[in-house]
């Protein structure tokens, strides 16, 4: 058996510890959108493929976020996989109080009235099938009903508290 690197000093689990640990975990960046009285959306790094048959995805959303009231009631959501060229778009949808669907965001109404962002690597429109309570968040489970892997290119990644690109 080979020696492993030192583990260090364990700390009691807290919100700060969890954030610190997950800063070490690189995650793809997506924007989730929904139609409401006004369109809503937010940047998500918690997007996961859950099942292929039926095609299910999941993501987390904070119940204190400005998007939650729309997400809590909507039947359909849009999922957008961002490319490395979309750091500004990711930052806009991550920033509290930002005009996310303002003049700097190119989008259109898609299937089921879901706001679809232009220029993304891929998108899905999904039907929400469950909202699972998880602390101060809800885990959303949704079934893909349509989509398109429209764009080529490299994905945007979230790591160490910032948006970055993959390196060769």
By CATH, the architecture is named Roll
CATH topology: Pnp Oxidase, Chain A
Distance between the termini: 32 Å
> What is the CATH C level class, in words?
Mainly Beta
Number of domains: 1
Task: State the strand order across the main sheet.
Answer: 3-2-6-9-10-5-4
| Percent of residues in β-strands | 35-45%
Look at the structure and give the mean pLDDT.
93
How many helix segments? 3
Shape: globular
Oligomeric organization of the protein chains: single chain
Main sheet makeup: 7 strands, antiparallel
Uncertain stretches of 5 or more adjacent residues: none
Number of strands: 12
SSE order, as H and E? HEEEEEHEHEEEEEE
Helix/strand/pairing class, anyone? mainly beta
The helix content is 10-25%
Q: Which value, in Å, is the CA radius of gyration?
A: 17 Å
Q: CATH homologous superfamily - what is it?
A: Electron Transport, Fmn-binding Protein, Chain A
Care to describe what's here?
With 168 residues, this protein is mainly beta. The chain has a single domain, classed as Electron Transport, Fmn-binding Protein, Chain A (Pnp Oxidase, Chain A). It contains three helices and twelve strands. It has a seven-stranded antiparallel beta sheet. It has a three-stranded antiparallel beta sheet with strand order 1-11-12, with helices on one face. The longest helix is centred in the N-terminal third of the chain and has 8 residues. The two termini are 32 Å apart.
């Amino acid at each position: 058996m080979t020696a492993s690197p030192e583990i260090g000093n364990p700390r009691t689990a807290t919100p700060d510890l969890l954030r610190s640990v997950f800063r070490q975990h690189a995650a793809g960046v997506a924007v989730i959108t929904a139609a409401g009285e006004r369109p809503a959306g937010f940047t998500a790094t918690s997007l996961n493929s859950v099942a292929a048959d039926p095609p299910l995805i999941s993501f987390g959303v904070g119940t204190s976020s400005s998007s939650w009231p729309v997400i809590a009631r909507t039947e359909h959501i849009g999922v957008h996989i961002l490319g490395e060229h979309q750091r500004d778009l990711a930052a806009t949808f991550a920033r509290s109080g930002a005009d996310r669907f303002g003049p700097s965001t190119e989008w259109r109404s898609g299937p089921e009235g879901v706001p679809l962002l232009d220029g993304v690597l891929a998108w899905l429109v999904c039907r929400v099938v469950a909202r699972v309570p998880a602390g101060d968040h809800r885990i959303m489970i949704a079934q893909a009903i349509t989509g398109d892997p429209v764009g080529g290119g490299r994905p945007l990644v979230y790591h160490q508290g910032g948006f970055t690109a993959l390196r060769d």
